[in-house]
Amino acid sequence: MHPQPHHDNGHPLRVAIIGGGPGGLYAAALLKRLAPSRDITVWERNAPDDTFGFGVVLSDETLGGIEHADPEVYEALQRHFTRWDDIDIVHRDTRHTSSGHGFAALGRRRLLEILHTRCRDLGVDLRFRTEAPEDLPRTHDLVIAADGIHSTTRERHADVFRTRVTHHRCRYIWLAADFPFDSFRFEIAETEHGVMQLHGYPYAPDASTVIIEMREEVWRAAGFDELDEAESVERCAKIFAEALRGRPLKSNNSTWTTFRTVVNDRWSHGNVVLLGDAAHTAHFSIGSGTKLAVEDALALAACLEERDTLPDALAAYEAERRPVVASTQRAARASLEWFEDIALYLDQPPRQFAFNLLTRSRRVTHDNLRLRDARFTETVEREFGCPPGTPPMFTPFRLRGLTLHNRVVVSPMDMYSAVDGVPGDFHLVHLGARALGGAGLVMTEMVCVSEEGRITPGCAGLYTGRQAEAWKRITNFVHDRAPGTAIGVQLGHSGRKGSTKRMWEGMDEPLEEGNWPLVAPSALPYKEFSQTPRDLSRAQLTDIREQFAAAAVRAARAGFDLLELHCAHGYLLSGFLSPLTNRRTDAYGGSLEKRLRFPLEVFDAVRNVWPGERPMTVRISATDWAEGGTSAEDAVEIARAFAAHGADAIDVSTGQVVADEQPEFGRSYQTPFADRIRHTTGIPVIAVGAISSWDDVNSLILAGRTDLCALARPHLYDPHWTLHAAAEQGYTGPGATWPAPYRAGSRRPQTGRTDAPKPRLSLGSGDARGG
């Protein structure tokens, strides 16, 4: 073995490729084309004409990479592509069509034939019906494991690659129809056994791919677990007879399976590197499997050309591809989970349901869907209730006696800048600036109900009259100078996460001096170096409940329009809700019902003294991101419980409950939890978590995934975020009122050319499916 080939200098690079799918074959062709002296062999256990699945969708972006790297392959593909522009969504006997998407597909067998021909023409050694020898890493300079989701190469070194495989909740089967659909078609069948869905698209003048998918429990209830292949195919054809025009379906060794998401912490081991499904998988509903494999091959070939040593090349390949793949997998996961939970959305207004489906992965958004198909998007907006020309984010929303003039909330953000709990000039400027910035609701930071309930010495409070008077100065400013903007207060108690330094001095680190004793549901420190709290006695629970009520009375007198009870992020009330932080054996611990008892007692005490016409919301952590913690299902029940006691909306956050959490960060990553609560319970929700653009807000609101969107960091970056969002959308109507002194700046400054043509819209394969 030659451990560190240097651009093939000194000897021709010997490359072994395990797996003769599109990714492996394309990698072979590229590497041979770039350096004809390379000795490249592909091992494929199946015959050359064996293939599974039917059609393959490739994006314009992927095709552009192929055209640049190998024009001959590109030209061959072009001759066989089937192209179309529409997506049809058929639900409850109504078809909704969205146009302007742009698809290209061809048969998987045809794709393999093209790549076989290209490899042979270049001199690649293709060995079919042959298992790859286990000693390839010893006999070759580079081994590319493109042997799919069941990669034996990956499994052989699973401890090095640190593979994680997640099994999901739907069964699906790949089939084909003997006619071409004229669009990408999603069809929903509501059967006596549950919801089933068809995903179909053309890939040849006389053929379409058809995927039938349903939840595991639906699959079993319908009896598919007892049918053989032919019987399953026949049953599917009957269920979706109208979509199939009465035509039969055909299979190709098709079996029902569950999707598995594959993630590897490392993609290479010595001179072995993973590619395509061996390295990562993305759910078929965004159609990125072949796309990712081909793009892996392009990147790997480029890195081998650009780097001097194999380790450097493999490291560069992974560094380049991992962020792209991670983003795609997040989108695929969102799409997958949307289809798993499709039953939640069936009662949405028809066009909103279609919009929700098209934007399910968060890659297709309100703005780019509007650019592709303005008529469809405007119809959805009209059905939602948007006046002509009004973005969804600028529609009003009512909570009890309070009408918010738009759907934007300045999320609570701890400022740690109070003195003795008293908010000062900083708070006036901070909250006043954001109120002038046009948000419908501006929330305070967590305002503590007692001195002992502070997180840091800089936390604001509402446990003295002096503090209440200082808050009244701020609410008066908002009401006088930012009419239409409401201001809300978030009440909380730090629990075991108190007596720490300010965030910029050392987040969650205990004070070096001046510490105060902590209390919590159970005597569990937040971190190893944290102070251990005392578990609360019954008498202390009563005292704290009364502290919350007294703070609420002061908040009402201070003029706040809305009150939020903080039951999230591991603070005191959150500590009662999570089984990871509540180990009590009395009436306040154990089952979820018992863990809810004290937070509900506090809520009731606050609601009893809070003015009846003013709304109350509750912020919860919908998951602890830790094994054995609060689950998404628990969060639904928690929301139901608070709503039954009079909560007007649930502010749905996640995590920060235990220090060893493992969050799944990403764009709008917390919104699915709000979405589930809203559609399961009907309770209004506030979505938070990496919502960063006005396009995200419009998309989430119009799809019905949330009622309000709370943004934190964007408002730190730009206090006038909401008004700037209006200007960028050319909107000047209700819900976007500029303060009189600022109106001269209400038009967005023009920079550079404004007549430049918009780029042609192109989508990844999954994006083209509406994901």
UniProtKB/TrEMBL annotation:
Pfam families: FAD_binding_3 (PF01494), Oxidored_FMN (PF00724). Residues 14-329 form the FAD-binding domain. Residues 393-726 form the NADH:flavin oxidoreductase/NADH oxidase N-terminal domain. Residues 736-771 are annotated as: Disordered. Gene3D superfamilies: 3.30.9.20, Aldolase class I (3.20.20.70), FAD/NAD(P)-binding domain (3.50.50.60). This is Bifunctional salicylyl-CoA 5-hydroxylase/oxidoreductase. It comes from Streptomyces iakyrus.
